[in-house]
Structures are given as structure tokens and as C-alpha cells.
Specification:
By secondary structure, the chain is an alpha+beta fold. Helix content is 29%, strand content 31%. Strand 7 and strand 8 form a beta hairpin. Helix 5 packs across helix 7.
Length: 249
């Protein structure tokens, strides 16, 4: 099973976007997938703010304000999965990129404000839309949500763990439109935590996930308190649509 993740958030210049995407899908991703131990790759385009309902209403979510060491790119999200983190750390992303041909290295310079995390899976649950006949863990969902963040103190981090264990993860198993949720923790990178949600569509996320806590006011209060203790990466939580592999009709 895949339990390790290489996640890159970045922007692209508008004028070179199509060429950069074509190279990523036709050249770069196949080269990463050829690495020993890499099991899958996926590429997503973040949706513009305003095109979806953010969670954390009432000012619950705060973001890293000092950009030093935390690049702000987030319009594209590229992910790779492996069985264990050292498959992604040997060579490290930087070493891997440094050994690519000059043309590939030149294309990588088109990525703007890129930040990277290597992460391992802490917990996984399956929602009502998971296919029991397909045990493969390759992300196939058309729509994802990916939050990446730190917590302000060790005490608050304990509370975060309790909240995920007792509320967020169990409750997602009942949310219509949810395929799978993976809670991740960091091996390398600024964000210590991430949560990776897969949905059948952006509409299903809007119709069901956004409102799922409303019948449970005591949990709304708990969620509000927990989330206020987090500091998110720029743009987090991202809601994104998959652009590779292509979504087949």
C-alpha cells in the first residue's frame, strides 16, 4: 500500500502554461514514475477562491504571514505515492532534479514559488463512494481538498490528534460524495500536517462536505476551536480538480 507522499505546490507563468503542463504530463511524470518504489502520480489544478465554499468559516483558518521559507505557490499540486518515504528520499527531490537533463531542468525553472513536502500516512478512512471491488489506493477522484498546516503548541497538537481520531476521520465515512480521506504527517517540508480528501465531484463537496457538521453543533464548536489553533500554508486548504491522469467520461 502507498503510505508515503511527495507533494509539490507551485504556480506557472500564464504565457508558458500549456507548454509546461504538456512537458509535465508527457516527460516529467513518466520519469518520476520510473523511479523504483514510486507507485502513482497525480496532478491537480487548484480552483480559484470564490469558486468553492471554504471551510473554517467565521475566521477559523489563519495562514502563514511571513513568507520567508514558505513559498506561496499553490495553483498546481503534483503528488506522487510510494510504499515508504525513503523511496522518495533516495534520491531526494532536489537530487533527482539536479540529475535530470538540461532541458528538463530548464522546464523546472518555470515553476514559480514552489514548496515541497515529503509525508507519511497517519490514518486513512473510506467514504460511502469508495469502490469495495477496487482496493487500489491510486487517487482517481476528480476533485480533492488538500490542507497543509502547523499547530501552535504541543498541547494544541494533542487536541488536534483527538479531534481527527474521534470526529473528523470517523465522520467522513458517512459523508455522501466522499471517496477517501488520508491524514498525513511530514518527513520533510514546512507543513507538519496535511489532510487529503477525495470527492466524486466539486458539486458533491459543496452539497455535502461543506454542511456535514451542521446537525452537530457541539462538533462545530470543537472544530472551530481546533482549527483556530492551526497555521496553514499559503492558499491552504486547496480545492482542486484533477488534470492528470485525464478524467475519462
Amino acid at each position: 500500500m502507498d503510505r508515503a507522499y511527495w507533494i509539490s505546490w507551485y504556480d506557472l507563468p500564464e504565457k508558458d502554461r500549456d507548454a509546461c503542463l504538456a512537458w509535465a504530463h508527457e516527460v516529467y511524470i513518466p520519469k518520476v514514475l520510473a523511479r523504483r518504489g514510486v507507485m502513482w502520480g497525480a496532478h491537480y489544478a487548484s480552483q480559484p477562491k470564490g469558486s468553492f465554499t471554504p471551510l473554517g468559516g467565521g475566521g477559523r483558518i489563519s495562514h502563514k504571514k511571513d513568507p520567508k521559507g514558505v513559498p506561496k505557490g499553490d495553483r498546481y499540486i503534483m503528488m506522487f505515492g510510494a510504499a515508504e518515504p525513503y523511496a522518495l528520499g533516495n534520491p531526494s527531490p532536489r537530487e533527482f532534479h539536479a540529475n535530470l537533463p538540461e532541458g528538463d531542468r530548464r522546464m523546472l525553472t518555470q515553476r514559480l514559488a514552489e514548496r515541497v513536502n515529503l509525508m507519511v500516512e497517519e490514518s486513512r478512512v473510506y467514504g460511502p463512494e469508495a469502490n469495495a471491488n477496487d482496493p487500489a489506493s491510486i487517487p482517481a477522484a476528480p476533485c480533492i481538498q488538500l490542507g497543509s498546516f502547523n499547530v501552535r503548541s504541543c498541547e494544541e497538537e494533542e487536541e488536534l490528534a483527538a479531534w481527527y481520531a474521534r470526529w473528523r476521520m470517523p465522520s467522513m465515512q458517512k459523508v455522501p460524495g466522499c471517496i477517501r480521506v488520508r491524514k498525513l504527517v511530514s518527513v520533510a517540508g514546512w507543513a507538519k500536517h496535511a489532510c487529503f480528501y477525495e470527492f466524486t465531484s466539486l458539486k458533491d463537496r459543496e452539497d455535502h462536505f461543506v454542511h456535514y457538521e451542521r446537525p452537530h453543533p457541539e462538533m462545530v464548536e470543537w472544530s472551530t476551536n481546533v482549527v483556530r489553533d492551526t497555521v496553514h500554508a499559503p492558499g491552504s486548504a486547496n480545492v482542486a480538480l484533477r488534470i492528470w491522469p485525464p478524467i475519462r467520461a
